Each structure stands twice: as structure tokens, then as C-alpha cells.
Amino acid sequence: MNIPLPPDIEDDLLESCRNTGDYCPVMFEWYKYSARLANYFSCLELRSPALIDISQIHNSVLIGLLNRCSRLMLANVTLSHEGAFGETTAILDRCIFESAIKLIWLCHVKKEEYFNRFIAEGLKTEVELKKKIQENIANQSGRVKAIEKQMLNSIENYFKKSELSEETIEKLPKLPNIAQMIEKNGSDRLAYIVGQRIGSHHVHGSWVSLWFHYLKEEDGIVSPWDHGCPTHINQYAFVPLIVLEAIKAFLGFIIKYSEESKILIEVIDGVSEEVRIFFHDITAQDIEII
């Protein structure tokens, strides 16, 4: 495997960061590299003899989640490279966190039922929407509008790809919530509070979020904060660490031979350690994400 090479952090960049006290440029490079690794491993060929025997549908769940993490991280790279749009990167990081947690959880539980529950949970809305469209069609004396036909075809396509019947989709129980998944993954409640609950501020625009990203106060006057809000350095550490853990869980699950997976996992551990070392030097405190 030709794994992407880690970033070459030049001495001039490090010296500049030390002088300014702003290490975001260094952490930015590790954030970007973690996204590249997620993309790389999401492209493992299912037909490879090194991989376990897993259905294409369930493999699609895993590589889809991993690629989602990568794509959203790379979107954040584009958004934040000039030091702006921190309010938006925080929203995307919350999405990345949830996808990574679900990926880790699925790789830990290793049960077909839970893969099906994941798929079904994403289709329950489509079942409800299909019923509502059919109800509207009945109220129109059977006349089908073009947009209704288009929507029904789209819904049926999602059903077909899942290989689950509508009856099965409706009957399958909901997934555990994120807090339960994190606990099952062996992590502390702190990971849930920081990654999910605080992240939710940014998704839902809570009181905390408004003051963190959208409002400023000068001389008692409150006014909107423009788009110059930077991405916080904690984001450049927290998100890569959780995504790297997701990559490790994926490799440990999908690769058939333990020795091969062990070698790759050690590589990912090395990257995680680099991120932790840099962040520890910056904050002078240890962090444990997973």
C-alpha cells in the first residue's frame, strides 16, 4: 500500500508559529493529512483477499461514513485556509464527529442487524414521505404530478439499494443514541459532551453559539460579527483524533489478517501521537478523545 506521506513541517513554519504563538498552520496540516488518510482507506477494494467477507451493502455503509468524514474535512480545509468561516467549520466538524462515532460503533459491534438498523433508520423518513405522497395522489383522483413521480422514483431507488423491504424498515428498532454508542466504544462521557452536545450549539444556533460565532459587544452595543471568525485550534486536533480512531476501527474490522491490520493501525497510532504531541505542546495539557 502506498499510504500518503505525512506533512513535512518545515523548521521555518515551526519557528513562525513559536514567534506568533499561533500553531494553527501546523495543526491545519495534520487535519488535512487525516482527511487524506480517511479518503485513502475508504478506497480499499472489497475484492481484495486481505479483506473479510462482508456484503457490498454493509461495506458501503462503512466506506460511505469514512468518505463522508474525509469530504467534510476537506471542505473545512477549503473554508478555513485563510482564517475565516469558523462558524461553518464548527457545524461540519459536528457532522464529522457523529459519522466517526457511528463508524467506530458499527466496527465494534460487528453485527449484521446493526448495519441493517443503520440503513433502516435512514429510510424511515422515506417510508413516511412515500405514504404521504400516495395519500396526496389518492386525493387527486389518482393524478400523479411530475414532481411526485420523481420523488417516488427516488425513494424506490433508495429502497432497492438497501435490499430491505418497507415492512422490514418500519419494524427494525432505532439505533442507540450517540451517547450510548460512545459508551459502547469505551469512551468517557466527556467525549459526548464535547463532540456532540457542544457541537450541537453550532448546528442549532443556541444562545452559546450566537455569542461564540455571530455576535460581538463593544461599549455595551451588540452587533453582528462578520465572517472573519477563525476556526479554533481545538478543532484541528479534536476532529483528526476522532477520525483517526474511526480509521483504526475500520481497518481492525475489515482486514482479515490481524498482522496486516496491526501494522496499519500502528501507522495510524503514529499519526495520532504526532497530533497529540503538537497539541500538548500548544496547550500544555493532555487530551483524551477516545
Instruction: Count all strands and give the number.
Output: 2
Secondary-structure-derived class: mainly alpha
State the end-to-end distance.
27 Å
How many helical stretches? 12
The residue fraction in helices comes out at over 70%
The stretches of 5 or more residues where confidence is low (pLDDT under 50) are 284-290
Describe the structure.
The protein is mainly α. It has one domain. It has helices at residues 11-20, 24-42, 56-80, 86-109, 112-139, 146-162, 166-171, 178-184, 189-204, 207-214, 233-254, 258-283, and strands at 215-218, 221-224. The protein has a two-stranded antiparallel sheet. A hairpin with a 2-residue loop joins strand 1 and strand 2. The protein is globular and about 70 Å long.
What's the short version?
With 290 residues, this protein is mostly helical. Helices cover 72% and strands 3% of the residues.
Characteristics:
290 residues; mainly alpha; two-stranded antiparallel sheet; 12 helices; 2 strands; globular
Write the layout of secondary structure elements.
Elements: H1 11-20, H2 24-42, H3 56-80, H4 86-109, H5 112-139, H6 146-162, H7 166-171, H8 178-184, H9 189-204, H10 207-214, E1 215-218, E2 221-224, H11 233-254, H12 258-283
Antiparallel strand pairs: 1-2
Helix pairs in contact: 2-3, 2-11, 2-12, 3-4, 4-8, 4-9, 4-11, 5-6, 8-9, 9-10, 11-12
